[in-house]
Amino acid sequence: MAVGVSQVRVLELEASGDDIPRFASLAHCDPESRAGEPVPDLSSYGYNFPVLEKLLTCSQNCFATLTSLKLVNFNIDEEGGIMDHVLSNCRFLEELSLKGGTGLKNLNIVNLSSLKYLSSGSCWDLGKLKIISAPNLVHFEHKGFPEHPLPFMWLDFCFEDVPLLSQVTMDTNYLLSFMGVRRKHEVYSNQLEKVFMHISCYSEFDNVVNFDYRRTFPTMRCLKQLDMFITTVPGASLIFFVLCIKSCPFLSTLFVQFAEEKITQNDKVEATIRTSLRH
Residue 14, class by beta-carbon neighbours within 10 Å (0-12 exposed, 13-18 middle, 19+ buried)? Predict the structure, then answer.
């Protein structure tokens, strides 16, 4: 179906290249000459994000009607604040997903009043994530890809004015920040209803169990469901679970799935699902 560029609601870019400049050039055309032009097939390989800045310089803001934006396997040159510039023009954005990106060091979600779902994953250079004034944000997800776990990196989180945030998905880096810098997460922790924790290899779990336990989880008084997917080895400390359960006094559903890592003679790690516990 032919759709004018200015009518685009959903934009998904996954390792795509040659068609992005064409998409940008369509945005520069007069509306009359744009009529009937299809949204391009973004299925080729490899792209850099800054080329999309062209979309924001046309006479009509082509992101004005965008409700969903998904970027996968992208490169970003943060010179000029291109990501901030793009997001500031997405006034009706409801879903934002960023996965497999490089070059993105700071992600600022500011004054996105329509945003309901935010996902970031395997953004290798991301060091700071700020969510300020996202009054309709319900679900925030931050995790790496299971087959390519992120190296440990202390992430700087900032949350302000997220009154509806009730569901979060955590990887190890998010979890350690959640435990270690309570004041930054207490803004929303007592309104959480569902939490999903993913620890995809034992080296990550070791970071958690050896954490300074004089620091504890923020209280999660409204939490009803907690799902944990954890990779560990036999005999590992379980004090992590005690602290976690103590922080959610009204928990009604607990699901824990263990994957056990075994070191073979060839020092290869083999993960096998051992057991699932449901309460």
Answer: middle
Asked if residue 57 lies in contact with residue 79, where contact means CB atoms within 8 angstroms, the answer is no
Angle at which helices 172-180 and 202-209 cross, to 10°: 0
Are 149 and 130 in contact, with CB atoms under 8 Å apart? no
Give the integer Cα–Cα distance in Å for 79 and 254.
45
Give the DSSP letter of residue 114. T
Instruction: Give the N- to C-terminal CA distance of the chain in Å, as an integer.
Output: 49
List of the chain residues with pLDDT < 50: 1-5, 16-47, 50, 59, 263-279
CA 16 vs. chain centroid, Å, equals 20
Class of residue 260 by CB neighbours under 10 A (exposed 0-12, middle 13-18, buried 19+): middle
* Beta-ladder partners of 97: 70, 119
Contact 263, 269 (CB under 8 A): yes
The 3-class SS string of 48-71 reads: EHHHHHHHHCCCCCCCCCCCEEEE
pLDDT of residue 30: 41
Q: What average pLDDT is seen over the chain? A: 73
CA 166 – CA 188 distance, rounded (Å): 8
For 24, half-sphere exposure in the C-beta direction (CA atoms, 13 angstrom radius) is 14
CA–CA gap between residue 135 and residue 205 (Å, rounded):
33
Task: Kindly state the helix (H) or strand (E) to which residue 98 belongs, with its residue range.
Answer: strand 95-99
